[in-house]
Amino acid sequence: MQEQFIEHNKLVNPKIIRELTNRLNIKYMVSRETGPGTLIEKAANLIRAYWPRKEIFDYSQNKIILYCRIRDEVALLVNTLGCPLYTSESGLDEEKAAILSGWLSNPDQPAIAATSALGIGFNYPHVR
Hints:
The protein is mainly alpha-helical. It has a single domain, classed as 3-Layer(aba) Sandwich (Rossmann fold). Helix content is 34%, strand content 8%. It is built from 4 helices and 3 strands, in the order ααβαβαβ. The chain has a 3-stranded parallel sheet with strand order 1-3-2, sandwiched between helices. β2 (85-86), α4 (93-105) and β3 (111-114) form a beta-alpha-beta unit. α2 crosses α3 (71-81). The longest helix has 13 residues, at 93-105. The model has no long low-confidence stretch (mean pLDDT 82).
């Protein structure tokens, strides 16, 4: 989609730098869910089912981000899992940093529910 990006953003002679984006320390789990129950409930059930499995997770460092499209979905996950919340409305930069710091430093809290507001500039090597 490089050409579409250049055209859409009206870039003139952009300098394109490409690097390998594979990160062997990150695991992705994709699941197709059908049947009764909401996607929020199913995501929460996956966390409850897989987090206890020590062959998948190293509790001393691994973390899980549950991305949602809208803040209402984030709120539902927070209520269901009792995990921290991170959205564009999570406060000032210092408050957002405190949310991330608290989540990353708590080995008993595997997950955080967030919108795409968390995605920009976040780099933690053991997030699943």
